[in-house]
Structures are given as structure tokens and as C-alpha cells.
Amino acid sequence: APPDTPDMVHRKTICQFCSVGCSMWAEVENGVWVGQEPAFESPINQGTHCAKGAAMREIAIGERRLKYPMKKEGGEWVRISWDQAISEISEKLLDIRETYGPDSAYWLGSAKYSNEAAYLFRKFAAFWGTNNVDHQARICHSTTVAGVANTFGYGAMTNTFNDIRRSKSILIIGGNPAEAHPVSMLHVLNGKENGAPLIVVDPRFTRTAAHSDEYVRIRPGSDMGFIWGLVREIFENGWEDREYLAQRVFGIEEILPEVEKWTPEEVERVCGIAPDQTRRVARTLAENRPGTLVWCMGLTQHTIGSSMTRAASILQLVLGNVGKVGGGTNIFRGHDNVQGATDLGVVCDSLPAYYGLEEGAWRHWGRVWGTDYDYLLSRFTSKELMERSGMPLSRYMDGILEDPESLDQPHPVKAMTFWGHAANSITRGPDQIRALDTVDLLCVVDPHPTQVAIMTQKQDNVYLLPAGTTAEMHGSVTNSSRSVQWRDKVIEPLFEAKTDYEITYLLAKALGFADEMFKTIEVVDNVPVAESILREINRGTWTIGYTGQSPERLKRHMEHQDKFDSITLRGQIAPVEGEYYCLPWPSWGRPEDSHPGTPLLYDQSRPVAEGGLPFRARWGVEHEGATLLAEDSYTVGSEIKDGYPEITLGMIHALGWAEDLTARERLMIIAVGADRFRLELFDISEEEAQRAVDDLEASLLRNSGDGDSEDIEGSWMTGGESGSNESNSEPLGQRFPDYPEN
Ligand code: SF4
């Protein structure tokens, strides 16, 4: 850290603009943020930042900040106090709830939250009694999550940014990192310098394409045809990784009829790519393995986005590239915490950590929250509503404008809150404006007056609440490569702004459920403590592995990044000790454990039964006509719900963590029982699996009767019948020899 003086202190913060997660030092002189420097010791940005990151300070302290709460009355904006704002908003919300039910409020959250604010926001919606909660990920990478999770298990980037420099080839489809994620290009160009051919597929010749060895100009929307063309070419020439496919991949034979028709000539007809180029790219990928496949929203924002991301994942399986250093599917997210906000449940179809919405999920989180399941149930009007997905972000306008019954939505949306969800909200033009003009209550919570607040023609009952930026609060943030980093508060909230934590607390208090909601979280002077929220996250997120990232550990890691030698790392191929200071999830274990995080998902150097994982290539969707010329003929995502419950994600990976054979067998059985396609790989009959799952569920229910949440989690991880976590006393990290211990 740069040396502090009596007047000048330095605070380490994380850039708030994109998902690369660059860290920087903020210089604070007598409480005023006067300058910033990129952190040289950061393994991610290594002393660099881009033009957006360089504007961090200016955005936070800029003139356009919203300075105090405001209200629109008779078409005029007037300044009001926080007390008045909270009291009027909560009164109106309670009236609306009384008349129309809890689902008549829609809570639109943000990928700009800290992890703790995201988690608190989802918890708030649960205590209010609705699943009408969502954020930007719905319209950017939700198709990636569907496609990738359905193939591998987790809907996330498989490797790290740094790892790209070890790739033997780099294929970028539908992404322009040179402009959208500039610092990630550092790693891409390192990879190129190390000899990896860089292939860029894009309809536009972008700045990224300008660095490529091979630029593939593609007809917009026809990516699927090109990907299948590559897969076909690879099989045609016998370049597929047969051993890998036989050992790890289930259902690959179902792909062959899909790809059969995508000859180089057909690819040319549909995608506009010359046959020689398709052949050349396939050969380059086959001859340079393991290679990475990077994509961004050019591949996701299509009506067949889930299918495209599945096809891309399958291409990597065919090449044997997943679960290997330098390989993987590396998906660059948008906002700085789009990964964390999704992980921690700012979505309409799940509670935090992808537990889903079924009764077991509510019981799990009820235990973590120290509250009764029946209390939570009472906040919804019925069990059915409690377990039903809320409206996605893409449909909230329909929830306002259309007959609720036609939408399978029980209540009309009468109150809209945009909390940290800025410009992107107004993307459907007149429809959207019209919808917002008709709600009974419109609240915008943001550091800046947003498009929503400015464009609405609504004359009354519009509120603008000034939120602090992420630089004005402590908290953690998860970058695109799953690395969780601690972000120090740089300055106190400016003007009359309040942190997301405080606003959530004040609203919960005025709405009458703060006592119940904050039973397990420390609150000081109306401000929930970020560290305390993170500890609660640690207690509940076993499915995804945020359990080992305590606030203390995260802070230590940020402090000790200076052990990382960024100069010697540049250009080197070998792993460098200390590279993974950012604790990518899954990081299992009790918060005080030393599990180093998982920079490489599905590590193929480990056997299947120890978390190396099998993959699913099975193709249940009809993709005929992948030209996008007849969009209606596409059936997207119908396979996603087919036998793929959330439990699989964490449990299958947890196989490698169970200490004793019994536990391992149990976890294996849960995994295969929950996801029948894996039975074949484990040579277990469906009946056997079902019996074991029934036994295990009965045992979990028994344990859940009188133990606290940690006991239950202990029993999940160890298979202990009594729910004792005694056998969990050894830190899990010490049983995991493959990565350097930090
Ligand atoms: Fe910020 Fe992204 Fe630029 Fe890094 S690359 S400085 S995280 S905008």
C-alpha cells in the first residue's frame, strides 16, 4: 500500500464499471477523495486501468449526483427530508399491499450492488413477500447461465482472466473486450505474445478484431451455424478428443445429427463465411489446445441465446478444452457485480445461491435468517406464490399494462422501485414510459437522477432517493471470473446520500419487518454492518461456495496482494504463487478455513468422483433453421428444467470435499439422483439412486428439526446422521492439495 500520512490516507477499492474487477488505490486527503492510482499488485489489472476506470473518482464525486430526497408533486420536483420520504413511501406501499397483495410491488435491483447489498435486497423482497425482483443480468447473460449451467453445472466463467495468457488458442465470438473490458485485453494479448493465435468472430471489424490473427466476419445472428460448422469439421477430420469425450461427456452422440448439415458450404450460405475460413479456424483450434473460448453479449442477446451458448460450450467439450488450464468457456460479464448479484439472488426465480424457490429452499434460508418458515409463508398470500417465479425484468411492463391473469401474474404491478438500475431500464420506449406513468407509486433509488426519473410523465407519487455509490460503503464484489474481492469504503456518503444498506433497513423498519429481517445481522445506527451481512452469506451459500470467504479473509487477501509479483508474471506461462489472491468461488469451508478458492472449475486433473465432473452434451432442443430467419421456429430452453434441480450444482462439486467414503457415496447419490443423466456414468440404477435420495432427505429433515443451520450444513457436507459438524472440524482447504495455499 502507498504510505499514509496524517493528512493523506489510501483506500483500496474495486472499479465499479465492468466485470474485470480491477483494483485501485484511492487517495483521500482530509476526508476528500483527491486522486486514484491503479494497483500494481493486483493479479487482475497489474498496475493498469482503462479510461472508464480512470473516471471512478469523477463519477463518484461528480456534479450530477443526486443530493437529497425529492418528490414529484403536481408535476414539480420538490426537496423533502429522508423521514418524509421513507414514511410516505412505506405508507403507500402498505396501502397497495393491502388492496392488491404483495406481488403488486416490483423491486428492480442492480448489478452495481455490493454482494452484501444484493443479498440484503433479495432478503428484503422475501420478507416483503414477493419474488418480483430482478436485475440487469436478465437481459444480458441469463442465456449464458442457462446454456452453460445446463452443460457443465455452474453458469459462470470456468477459468480466470489471468489464465488466458496460458491458452494455446483464443477464440472470441460476439465480444469486443478491447473496448468493453479493456484490461482483459492485457491477458488476451499476453496469450497472443505467448504464441496463441487470436481468432475474432464478429459482424463488425472491432478494435479487438484489429488485434486478431484471423478475423471472421459473420452475418449477424448466425453464430450457431458457424459453431456447428466448426464442430462438424472437427469430427469430420477426427480431431475430436475421443478419450475426453468417452470419459467425461454424456450424450455427445446426440449432437452429431444436429451438426451434420453444417458443411462449410452451408455455413457459407447462412453465415457468409468462406468454406476455407471455416476449415482453417477448425484446424487452428484443433492444433492449438487447450484453447479458450471467450464470448460476450454478441452471443447471448438472441432469441436462441441459450442454445448458442450451449453450442459454444459443446464446441469446447469436443476439443477437450474444459477443466484445463488455458481452456474453458470464459464469459465476460457486463457490470462490475453482475456475477455476485446473480449468485446472491437478485433474480425472480431463486433465493440466494441458486437454491430455487421450493419449500426446501425457503426452509434453508429461513434457518439461516433465524426465522420461521411459517412467518415467511405468511408474508406471501399463498404457498403457491411463494414458490412461483416472479416476473422477469423483461416483462414488468406487461405486469403493469396487461390483464394480470393473462400473464399468470396474480396481482397487477402497482408500485415500481428502480434501485441502482439506471439507463438500461428505458429500452422499450413508449410502452415502458406508458407503463411507468400508470403505476400508483414510482421510486428511484440511485446516486444519480436516472432516465426513469427524468422521462416519466407521471405527475405525482414519484420519489427520488439519493443512494451512495459503491465507493461510499464497505462490501465485497465478485468479478466475471468468480473472484470475490473486498472493496473498502473510500469516503462517507456525499450530500444527503445514504448507503443501500441503510435505505434497506429504514424501509424494512417502516414497513414493519426490520426486527424479523435483521435478527441475524448487526445494525449500528440504522446501518446494517457489511461484514455481518457477509458472515450470513457465508453461513448459507453451500450450493455455490461463498462459505469460505469471510470478511476477514477477503481483507487479508486484498492487503497481501503485494506478494504478487506482477512484473515477473507478465508473459510467464507457469502458475505463480499468490496469483489467486482473489478467492474465486467455490471456496468451501467454514469462514475461518483456508480454502484457496477455485480458479479452475471442473479441473480435469482430478477424477470424476473428486469433483472433476462429467459434462452433459445431450441436446434436447430442436434447432432447425439456425439462421435466425424464422425465429418462431426455435424452441429455446425447454431442456433446462428437465431433471436439473439446483441441488446438483453444489452437490456434484462437493463430491471431492466429502471426507469419508460414506459421505462421498451419499453426495454422489444425491447428485445422480437429482440429475438422472449422470446415473450411467456412476453405474448406479435409478431405483438405487432414488432410495438413497429418499433416505438422505429423511435424514436431512430429521436433522433440520432441532439443529441450527450450521449443523444441517455440516450434515450435508459430511453425511453425518446426527447433524454433528464434529467431523467438519478440519479446515477443508487443508484437504485440497492442488492449489497453492495463500
Ligand atoms: Fe474498470 Fe473494467 Fe476498465 Fe478495469 S477494465 S478499469 S474494471 S472498466
From TrEMBL:
Q: Name one GO cellular component term.
A: cell envelope
Q: What is its main location?
A: other
* Alphabetical keyword list: 4Fe-4S, Iron, Iron-sulfur, Metal-binding, Molybdenum, Oxidoreductase, Signal
The cofactor required is: Mo-bis(molybdopterin guanine dinucleotide); [4Fe-4S] cluster
Q: Which residues form a coiled coil?
A: none
**What's a BP term from Gene Ontology annotated to this protein?**
anaerobic respiration
Enumerate the spans annotated as 4Fe-4S Mo/W bis-MGD-type domain. Answer: 8-64
Highest taxon above the source species: Bacteria
Q: Where is this region: Disordered?
A: 701-736
Cellular compartments annotated: Cell envelope
Entry's Gene Ontology molecular function annotations: 4 iron, 4 sulfur cluster binding; electron transfer activity; molybdenum ion binding; molybdopterin cofactor binding; oxidoreductase activity
To which protein family does this belong? Answer: Belongs to the prokaryotic molybdopterin-containing oxidoreductase family.
Name recorded for this polypeptide:
Formate dehydrogenase major subunit
Give the residues of the full protein shown.
Answer: 56 to 797 of 1045
